[in-house]
Amino acid sequence: MLSEKLLKELNEQVKYELYSANYYLAMAAYCAAQGLNGFVNFFVVQAEEERFHAMKFFNFIIGMGARARILQLDEPKNEYNSLEEVFTLALNHEKFVTGRIYTLMDLAQEEKEHATISFLKWFIDEQVEEEASMSDLLHKVKMLGPQGLYLLDSELAQRTFTPPAK
Ligand code: MG
C-alpha cells in the first residue's frame, strides 16, 4: 500500500509529466513560428511521450488502489529568443525531471515500497535517454550553420511516437 507521503509525490509527478507535455508544445509552437516544421514534429512527439509518462504514473497509482488526483498546471514559457535557448531550457527541464524521479526513488527505497521501486526503474533509464537526446540536439543546434540546421530539421520531421511495449 502506498503511504500518504509517497502517494502525494506520485500525484505531483503526474502533474510534472503533464506540465512537460505543455512545455514541449509551447516549444513546438515557437518552432512553428520560425517555420521549422521538423522541430515542430520533434516537440509534438516529445509532448506525446510526456503524456504517455503521465498516464504511466496515473495507471500505476490507480492500479495500486490509491486515489489519483489531477492538479493545476502552471503556464509554460511561451516566448523564446532562439533555438539554442529552447534546447538549453529543454535540457534543464529534463535534468529537473531526473531529479524528481530520484527523489521519488529515494522515498520509495526509504519506505521499502518495492512495487514503486520496480515501477520507477523504467523512468530512471528513460531519463538517461531524455537527457542524452536534448543534450545532443543542443550541441548540434549550437554547431550547425543554416544549411546544417535545414538538414537537421528534415531529419527531425521523421520522428514518430511509438509507445513502448512494456
Ligand atoms: Mg517525462
Q: Overview of this structure, please?
A:
It contains five helices and no strands. By secondary structure, it is mostly helical. It has a single domain, classed as Ferritin (Up-down Bundle).
The domain count comes to 1
How does the major sheet shape up?
none
Q: Name the CATH superfamily assignment.
A: Ferritin, core subunit, four-helix bundle
> What ranges have pLDDT less than 50 throughout 5 or more consecutive residues?
none
Give average pLDDT, whole number: 97
Order of helices and strands: HHHHH
Hetero ligands? magnesium ion
The CATH architecture designation is: Up-down Bundle
Number of helices: 5
- Large-scale geometry: elongated
Set out the fold topology.
Elements: H1 4-33, H2 37-63, H3 83-110, H4 114-143, H5 146-156
Bound molecules: magnesium ion (MG).
Magnesium ion binds next to helix 1 and helix 2.
Features:
166 residues; mainly alpha; Ferritin; 76% helix; 0% strand; elongated; binds magnesium ion
Quick structural summary:
The chain is mostly helical and 166 residues long. The protein has 5 helices and no strands.
